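lol forgot to send this yesterday, sorry. struct tokens for the thing we talked abt
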């Protein structure tokens, strides 16, 4: 009898296109995207077969894909809980309205309380945070839960995000140590990487930040570079499984993944330890 895996969520890097140029991005040399609704449907069908419940739609910037809203519709029809992870630049009243009813969560990347620092790292052109502050009330009005994602780099390791988090009141806040991926961003590691000790100091500064979700008090999720390795089930822009190895990124056909060999692609214990499964409905 086959044991059902604990992996219930997948990150689909739906497109490699992006309108930002974040210097620390882990997908700098990624490419491709699916061009037909049939191919998108095939990926969703495979994920459904594997027991995936929550779909994190990421990029690049996923809202740039011409089939973005079709993906949301199909995901809803197939019963997935959809989360869109975006830099937020394309969010406005019109796009949020189109997402309403199809998207449960929007994850927005905010790495610094300073728009100037963010711009220096390639995150926007000096008004990234200011824009996010304008659109967060629109998300809330649309019934879409807010998650904030923060990458800790050499430029931001000494900053304090507590006031930003208190103002935006996300239901989740995930804090990541800069992650080096061979062939993607290893050429900028010296410029952006932080040590384990530096990351821990950042975590300690923010560990007691209180968030509210479904009437309960929760705390930020902190993910070290070591924690992230092998703990995500990732699909690339071409619809293949993506595995980060010491020698670079390995691609595996999604239709070759079964419940029996799932454990070779994702470390179940790491997945559980980072709190990947939570009350996302």
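and heres what i got for the seq, position by position
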């Amino acid at each position: 009898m086959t044991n059902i895996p604990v992996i219930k969520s997948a990150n689909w890097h739906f497109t490699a296109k992006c309108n930002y140029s974040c210097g620390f991005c882990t997908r700098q040399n990624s490419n491709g995207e699916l061009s037909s609704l049939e191919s998108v449907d095939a990926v969703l069908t495979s994920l459904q077969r594997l027991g995936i419940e929550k779909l994190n739609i990421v990029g690049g910037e996923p809202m740039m894909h011409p089939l973005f809203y079709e993906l949301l519709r199909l995901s809803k029809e197939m019963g997935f809980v959809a989360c869109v992870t975006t830099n937020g630049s394309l969010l406005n009243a019109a796009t949020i309205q189109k997402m309403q009813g199809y998207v449960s969560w929007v994850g927005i990347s905010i790495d610094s309380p300073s728009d100037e620092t963010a711009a220096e790292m390639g995150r926007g052109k000096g008004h990234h945070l200011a824009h996010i502050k304008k659109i967060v009330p629109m998300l809330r009005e649309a019934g879409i839960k807010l998650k904030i994602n923060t990458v800790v780099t050499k430029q931001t390791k000494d900053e304090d995000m507590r006031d930003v988090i208190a103002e935006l009141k996300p239901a989740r806040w995930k804090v990541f140590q800069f992650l080096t991926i061979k062939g993607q961003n290893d050429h900028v590691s010296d410029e952006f990487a932080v040590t384990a000790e530096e990351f821990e100091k950042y975590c300690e500064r923010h560990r007691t930040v209180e968030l509210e979700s479904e009437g309960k008090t929760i705390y930020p999720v902190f993910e070290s570079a070591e924690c992230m390795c092998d703990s995500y089930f990732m699909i690339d822009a071409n619809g293949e499984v993506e595995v980060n190895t010491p020698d670079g990124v390995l691609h595996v056909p999604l239709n070759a993944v079964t419940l029996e060999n799932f454990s070779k692609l994702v470390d179940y214990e790491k997945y559980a330890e980072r709190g990947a499964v939570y009350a996302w409905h």
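The chain has a mean pLDDT of 93. anyway ping me if u want another try
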